[in-house]
């Protein structure tokens, strides 16, 4: 199978170096020394960075300077901010990839360690739940997949994916507390009824044990518009200004780390996740919904989550438990 090419680590090192010397010009010789390459190789890499949208001034004779801080999800930029989390030193960055989830599932099957994260600037075959595609234009959203190896039975994975929604919620609130996302069971984050984020959790499991799990998170961050027929929004459309994807991705991974560790270590965490999910969701109670599950459909009113995180829906025939269906407003 065609392997996606991770980003040349020297690109990240150059960006980091230029960021550390943001106010001055850095000579080609110094950069070449720092990344153990030649000056002509530095020039080639600088050209590559420019092609990727990084605004670098200068040339080989004069040296180089960043005109503005680039908002790329480079490990060299994010890693120092993720010390102490399970994701520290485990970031893999791609300028272009088919799907970070597909790549992470393949890497997990090959033995990649827990905490490995795939981040991409652009996905050419981003996947959503069901057979849906996930639009992933370049350097506009966050496209991120984390490999986890929880010592949990498969029946606990739903709670973990609800926790991923809470992590997105917390990250957004930490950056701008005025933005109030609405968690939609099981795996969406909405603003004003429109989709802001989708989560695709995929796993490989035995009957009683998860071998590995990939939590894929797509967040619409700086999109300026969406096709009319797509009920989607972005953080930029919500607040009227651009968001730093680096800041948001760091906040997201930190809060995912917190939720995950607490779920594994703390017997009360599951209850807390279900409670907080319900508190931050207009969908969990009292919403008139239509459920489609396994080719059948029914209507009712949502009536909370059960202890495993499944959605309860009160219908004329009694209370039904929704295991994996799609939920729509009626
Ligand atoms: C959905 O709402 O249907 C889930 C969307 C999940 C999209 C993310 S983007 C990063 C990761 N890679 C993928 O191909 N999909 C997930």
Q: What structural category do the secondary elements indicate?
A: alpha+beta
The low-pLDDT segments are none
Spell out the helices and strands N to C. Answer: HHHEEHEHEEHEEEEHHHEEEEE
Give a count of the beta strands, DSSP E runs of length 2 or more. Answer: 14
What is the count of helical runs?
9
Reading side by side through the largest sheet, how are the strands ordered? Answer: 3-4-5-9-8-7-6
Bound molecules: biotin
What does this structure look like?
- It is a single chain.
- This protein is of the alpha+beta class and 330 residues long.
- β10 (285-293) and β11 form a beta hairpin.
- The protein has a seven-stranded mixed sheet, sandwiched between helices. It has a five-stranded antiparallel sheet with strand order 13-12-11-10-14, with no helix packed on it.
- It has nine helices and 14 strands.
- The mean pLDDT is 95.
- Helices cover 31% and strands 26% of the residues.
- The structure holds biotin (BTN).
- Biotin is lined by residues 99-101, 123, 126-129, 132, 134, 143-145, 188, 198-200, 216-218.
- Biotin binds next to α5, β5, β8 and β9.
């Amino acid at each position: 199978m065609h392997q996606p090419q991770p980003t040349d680590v020297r690109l990240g090192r150059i960006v980091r170096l230029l960021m550390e010397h943001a106010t001055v010009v850095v000579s080609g010789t110094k950069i070449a020394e720092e990344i153990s390459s030649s000056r002509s190789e530095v020039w080639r890499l600088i050209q590559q960075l420019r092609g990727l949208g990084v605004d670098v001034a200068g040339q080989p004779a004069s040296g180089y300077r960043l005109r503005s801080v680039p908002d790329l999800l480079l490990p060299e930029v994010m890693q120092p901010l993720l010390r102490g989390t399970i994701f520290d030193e485990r970031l893999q960055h791609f300028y272009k990839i088919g799907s970070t989830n597909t790549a992470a599932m393949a890497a997990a099957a090959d033995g990649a360690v827990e905490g490995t994260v795939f981040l991409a600037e652009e996905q050419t075959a981003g996947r959503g739940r069901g057979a849906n595609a996930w639009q992933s234009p370049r350097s506009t959203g966050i496209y991120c997949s984390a490999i986890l190896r929880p010592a949990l039975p498969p029946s606990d994975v739903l709670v973990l994916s609800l926790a991923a929604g809470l992590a997105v919620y917390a990250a957004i609130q930490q950056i701008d507390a005025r933005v109030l996302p609405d968690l939609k069971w099981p795996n969406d984050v909405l603003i004003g009824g429109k989709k802001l984020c989708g989560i695709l959790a995929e796993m490989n499991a035995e009957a009683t044990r998860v071998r590995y799990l990939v939590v894929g998170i797509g967040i619409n961050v700086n999109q300026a518009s969406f096709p009319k027929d797509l009920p989607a929004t972005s953080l930029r459309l919500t607040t009227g200004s651009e968001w730093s994807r680096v800041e948001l991705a760091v906040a997201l991974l930190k809060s995912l780390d917190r939720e995950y560790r607490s779920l594994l270590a703390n017997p009360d965490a599951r209850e807390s996740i279900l409670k907080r999910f319900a508190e931050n969701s207009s969908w969990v109670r009292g919403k008139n919904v239509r459920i489609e599950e396994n080719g059948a459909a029914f209507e009712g009113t949502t009536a909370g989550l059960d202890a495993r995180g499944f959605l309860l829906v009160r219908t004329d025939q009694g209370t039904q438990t929704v295991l994996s269906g799609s939920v729509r407003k009626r």
